[in-house]
Amino acid sequence: MGDTTATPATDPAVKKGELASDAGRARRPRFLPGSVATHLALGLGALVMVFPFCWQLLTALKSLAEVSRVPPTFLPDDWRWASFDEVFTALPFREMLTNSALNTLGRTAGQLVFCSLAAYAFARMRFRGRDALFGLFLSVLMVPSSLLVLPQYDIIQSLGLLNSAPALFLPGMFSAFGTFLLRQAFLALPRELEEAARIDGAGSFRVFWSVMLPLIRPALAALAVITAMAAWNDLLWPLIVNTDPEAMPISAGLTSLEGQYETNYPVMMAGSLIASLPMLLVYVFLQRHFVQSVAASGVKG
Questions:
Q1: Whole-model pTM?
Q2: How does 21-37 read in b/e, with b if 16+ C-beta sit within 10 Å?
Q3: β partners of residue 263
Q4: Which of 11, 71, 233, 264 has its CA 20 to 30 A from that of 28?
Q5: DSSP-derived 3-state class of residue 170
Q6: Cα(99)–Cα(139) distance, rounded to whole angstroms?
Q7: How many Å apart are CA 238 and CA 247, to the nearest integer?
């Protein structure tokens, strides 16, 4: 007489139950002590990063007397939104935002054009002394930017461009760092793509523009984000070349709210919040390309 009782190893129902149990265990989150500590550290870091923005917003919603109170208060006694209107009367805010936009667009477009051309030449073209010239080019990164202010000011003054939009972005259209970043991206591309395009009859500029440049879009996006943020937040150079309030960008214009005896901090914080919104939107839209490109350029030589 045969044995009709199914063993756990051969019964399909038992096996299905074991598989479901294994899948459930695989999906079950693991609360390891190290993982909890990591999440706590990340949460604490996030709070530290977000706290200045929260304090900035709460300061903009307080009155000037409440901001000057000792000890300081965290939440406003009376939520006051008038500072966001007063910033448009205290400063030529729209003109300053326009100047900031022109400065940012000019610097970003210039660096994307000039740095991509220089990077392609250093990465893909063969000429005598290329590596030595690139090393000399990178040595500019070791020169403090403050040492270049005086000669750049003399050039802008000799061209008669003081208190104008080109004075803001002309010196920032060239960057050794941007050339280095894009050169790393060009070096990562396979040479067979370039050779195939040349076999099809493409010239050097056609290979650069139609084949190689579209393939480094993440690096271009990263350079655009870095340059745009630096141009939008630049303070020293605009204060030197554009002293007319209507020719200043918003980063320099906000400093005029700081008085000799008293500073209207609520209005200053409101203006800073409005001025930071465009860069926040740019980073939100391009952050994926920015992270990918910076990570790739750090591991490929």
A1: 0.74
A2: eeeeeeeeeeeeeeeee
A3: 258
A4: 11
A5: coil
A6: 31
A7: 9
Give the integer Cα–Cα distance in Å for 244 and 164. Answer: 9
- Burial class, 12, CB count within 10 angstroms (exposed 0-12 / middle 13-18 / buried 19+): exposed
Number of residues in the chain: 301
Question: Which of 92, 179, 185, 110 shows the shortest CA–CA distance to 138?
Answer: 179
Q: Average pLDDT, whole number, for the chain?
A: 83
> Which of 296, 278, 300 has its CA nearest to residue 288?
296
Tokens of 59: 């300061």
pLDDT at 74: 84
CA dihedral 145, 299, 111, 282 (to 10 degrees): -100
Provide the H-helix boundaries in the chain: 12-27, 33-60, 64-67, 83-90, 93-124, 130-138, 149-158, 165-169, 176-187, 191-199, 204-206, 213-215, 217-233, 236-241, 250-253, 265-299
pLDDT per position as a tens digit, 263-300: 788 888 988 888 888 888 877 887 776 676 666 655 44
At 230-245, the pLDDT tens digits run 999 888 899 899 888 8
Cα distance between residue 94 and residue 103, in whole Å: 14
Coil, helix or strand at residue 188: coil
Across 42-60, b (16+ Cβ under 10 Å) vs e yields eeeeeeeeeeeeeebebbb
Q: For the residues of 41-82, what is the DSSP string, one character each?
A: HHHHHHHHHHHHHHHHHHHHTS-HHHHT-SSPPSS-SS---T
Closest CA to 104 of 199, 298, 268, 234: 234
